[in-house]
Write a structure and sequence with these properties.
This is DUF819 domain-containing protein. Helices cover 78% and strands 0% of the residues. The protein is mainly alpha-helical. The chain has one domain. Helix 6 packs across helix 16, helix 8 runs parallel beside helix 18 and helix 17 packs across helix 18. The termini are far apart.
């Protein structure tokens, strides 16, 4: 069992490196069905389940790196994006986001109606808090918990579902990206605008004749880490002064603004941001998966089953809405994860689809923070009528 924090990080990065290397040099078609990023998530979860590292002993290393690297990754990815072109994606993305939000609310209500026996008639409160998290983030969950006066014992079940079911959903959505062409054809989605915006942004990046030199790489890495550090410090200060947004939301706003500004300066034309952001992407995915154990599926089985029912119903409703309104896979996937995973996951999924579209994931996640508390409370009150 690994107890040293540095060894823990080294193993995670090596697994990511090995998978990427195998895809590159074996050219196996296996990776067309199981991309390295999905395998990384799965293998890391399996190792966590087998107790490859001590969760408590390695927690400090995880805590120090996860958010710091995540914010640096978002900044670097945003450097490749021209917000003026992203805006051309238009109201379709907004519609996709609210379609996901509504389907999540309906899924919670339907699941409580079915599972209120095993869960208990008062489970609507904890489910309401979980709904707040799955429409926004942890800050929304805490807000709903306070509004409904939910005890810590009841919240423990919601937290288990939030951890385990969410992790499986992230892995599923990363895998489902491979189905995008077939899905888009089935729902008759017009991806012309999305493809054109993505293509132009990627061509802009490729047309840059600058090479990813040592100077570029160390400058971009240093800048990203500084932006991440000071962004969190300023985010904490703004949260103290204006607590209507939590620290994480303020930080994401600041990082996003920094990246979008940087994208229209000479820094945005420096080669190397793609390589560095991908490196951080795989590192963050490995870190997230390293705290999710399959063994936790045995904790509160009825609640975990309810969580999977919610995700299944949400997915079915979202697919039906996609069929009716011709929503593409990217819109559905990122909208779903922007609600359920927030700023920690939506940019990762968007980046896995196309690094040029990360701002879409960030903006959708921020919208989730806005509606999460109200959505959770409304859903909770509807469920209370069924108790």
């Amino acid at each position: 069992m690994i107890t040293n924090g540095f060894t823990y990080i080294a193993v995670l990065v090596f697994i990511a490196a090995l998978l990427v290397w195998l895809q590159r040099y074996t050219k196996s078609k296996f990776f067309d069905y199981a991309p390295p990023i999905v395998l990384l998530y799965l293998i890391t979860m399996i190792l966590c389940t087998l107790g490859a590292w001590d969760m408590e002993a390695t927690k400090p290393a995880y805590s120090v790196l996860k958010n710091n690297l995540l914010y640096a990754m978002i900044f670097l990815m945003l450097l490749r994006c021209d917000i003026r072109k992203i805006i051309k994606l238009g109201p379709k993305m907004l519609g996709g986001f609210f379609a996901a939000s509504v389907s999540i609310s309906l899924a919670f209500i339907a699941t409580f109606a079915i599972m209120k026996g095993p869960l208990g008639s008062e489970a609507w409160k904890a489910l309401g808090a979980l709904c707040g998290s799955w429409m926004g983030g942890s800050g929304n969950m805490i807000a709903v918990q306070a509004a409904l006066d939910i005890g810590e014992a009841d919240m423990a079940y919601a937290l288990v579902v939030d951890s385990i079911d969410y992790s499986i959903w992230v892995m599923f959505l990363l895998w489902a990206i491979n189905l995008a062409p077939k899905f888009n054809k089935w729902v008759k989605a017009d991806t012309t605008t999305l493809d054109e915006v993505s293509r132009r942004l990627e061509e802009d990046a490729k047309s840059n004749e600058d090479k990813a030199t040592f100077v570029n790489l160390i400058f971009l890495l240093g800048l990203a880490l500084v932006i991440s550090a000071f962004g969190q410090d300023i985010g904490a200060a703004l949260n103290s002064a204006m607590p209507f947004l939590d620290k994480a939301t303020w930080t994401v706003l600041l990082i996003t603004l920094s990246g979008l500004i940087g994208a229209v300066t000479p820094v945005g034309r420096m080669a190397g941001s793609t390589e560095l952001s991908n490196l951080l992407l795989y590192s963050v995915v490995a870190l997230l998966a390293s705290r999710a154990s399959f063994l936790e599926l045995t904790d509160a089985p009825a609640w975990i089953l309810a969580g999977f029912m919610i995700l299944a119903i949400h997915g079915i409703i979202l697919v039906l809405l996609a069929k009716i309104f011709h929503l593409d896979m990217f819109t559905c996937g990122v909208a779903s994860l922007a609600n359920i995973g927030g700023s920690a996951s939506a940019p990762i999924l968007a980046g896995a689809y196309s690094g040029a579209l990360v701002p879409v994931g960030v903006l959708m996640a921020l919208m989730g923070y806005v509606i999460g508390t109200a959505g959770g409370l409304i859903t909770a009150n509807i469920m209370s009528l069924l108790a």
